[in-house]
Write a structure and sequence with these properties.
By secondary structure, the protein is of the alpha/beta class. The protein is built from 15 helices and 13 strands. Helix 3 packs antiparallel against helix 4.
Length: about 400
């Protein structure tokens, strides 16, 4: 097989658009080097909808698990009793198992018709078994190599599940032809027997292609002295708590800094009808942002959950970050603590999330230029915009061999 005749299927983890975004970044880089390569994305739910909006060739497959259960887990995990958290956890696990049977069937049909030479799976561990079963080389991409089981279901039970998960995932990862971690060394637990390739953050924009802030603001008709706060929630369906805290916080910030605007990307955390009730007086709620990176560049402060790709895009855009991790997602909590320790973000932990806390954090960054410059400088050391190019080097080498 020649790389010029290659066929690649991308399977990004559903719900979180950061997985789709970095897959798109790799796809663009591969296409630039091998124009004749054929590529298709297989995704479900919000991820599939985003792929179509981004004009990617995509086929729809079932979600990994019930988005309703996933949202319930993230939104209520910190408040539920252990018995209730256990019920949600095991219902979610059953949903994951059943949905992946349906996904396997749909992907089998896609494999039969598309005849891929390579599958690139982003956070999709079941794809390693799928590729092994049909002898298709698999590139596995993840910034969190072995997920941590939350302690909400009881410490002893969590430890047992963690040990089993560690063994299972380590075994699965041995089936990957190539493992790419889009971050720097020291950011994830690595089993000794695995060969890992750290590429740095994989983003759609190179450092030299980052648009000028003033040009983007003129394009968006933002006045020179306006302060823009961008609030971005994840695609899991959780996040309503952050949205309502941000709406109330904006009113308080506006009293101190009248020339302030807030843009909230709200879907799917709340409905369109609910969002329409809050728009006005400098507050804009938008369902979908076609180019989130441009909005991040144009903003003076980004308020977001602790998804890896969004944080790395903000670092590249030199935009100060306030982040609040989900209660039920350990990966986000670890990301937040690690970045906070190196001065790269301001963190509001789930139990601290109030409109007062958020308003004071936003006001601090809007008024304190020194704090913002320190944060931007700390982030510059971690992001150079070349991660997609490094990942593509590895993938093309694999195709040639």
């Amino acid at each position: 097989m020649k790389p010029s005749n290659s066929r690649i299927i991308f399977v990004p983890l559903g719900g979180c658009l950061g997985h789709l975004s970095r897959n798109e970044a790799i796809a663009k880089e591969v296409k630039k080097r091998i124009p004749t390569v054929k590529m298709i994305f297989a995704a479900g739910g919000l991820t599939y909808e985003a792929a179509k909006k981004w004009k990617l060739e995509a086929v729809e497959i079932p979600e990994d698990a019930s988005q309703k259960l996933l949202s319930q887990w993230f939104d209520t995990a910190g408040e539920e009793s252990k018995s209730s958290a256990s019920r949600i956890f095991f219902s979610l696990s059953l949903s994951f198992f059943l949905n992946n049977i349906l996904r396997w069937l749909k992907l089998w049909r896609l494999k039969r018709d598309f005849k891929p030479d390579l599958i690139i799976a982003d956070g999709e561990y079941p794809m390693l078994a799928f590729c092994k079963a049909y002898s298709i080389p698999c590139v596995f991409v993840t910034n969190d190599l072995i997920p941590t089981v939350p302690n909400l279901i009881g410490e002893n039970r969590a430890k047992k599940i963690q040990r089993a998960l560690d063994r299972a995932i380590t075994h699965l990862l041995k089936w990957a032809k190539l493992i790419i971690v889009p971050d720097i060394p020291g950011t994830t637990r690595i089993p000794a027997e695995l060969d890992i390739n750290f590429t740095g953050p994989v983003l759609k924009i190179n450092l030299e292609d980052v648009p000028d802030k003033k040009i983007i603001r003129r394009k968006m008709k933002i006045k020179t002295d306006d302060k823009i706060i961008l609030v971005n929630v994840s695609g899991t369906g959780a996040g309503s708590e952050l949205i309502y805290a941000a709406i109330d916080a904006f009113k308080k910030v506006k009293l101190q800094l009248p020339k302030t605007r807030m843009i909230i990307k709200y879907w799917p955390a709340i409905s369109d009808e609910e969002a329409s009730k809050h728009t006005g007086s400098g507050l804009e709620l938008t369902r979908f942002v076609p180019d989130l990176f441009e909005y991040i560049v144009a903003s003076d402060v980004l308020v977001t959950h602790t998804g890896h790709t969004t944080l790395m895009e903000a670092a590249l855009a030199k935009t100060p970050i306030i982040t609040t991790p989900y209660r039920g997602q350990i990966e986000q909590l670890i990301n937040a603590k690690r970045m906070e320790a190196s001065g790269r973000v301001v963190v509001i932990y789930p139990d601290e999330l109030t409109s007062d806390k958020l308003a004071s954090s936003i006001t601090l960054l809007l008024k304190n230029k020194k704090k913002c410059l320190e944060m931007v400088s700390a982030n510059e050391r971690y992001v150079d915009g070349k991660g997609a190019s490094r990942a593509t080097d590895l993938i093309i080498k694999l195709l040639k061999n």
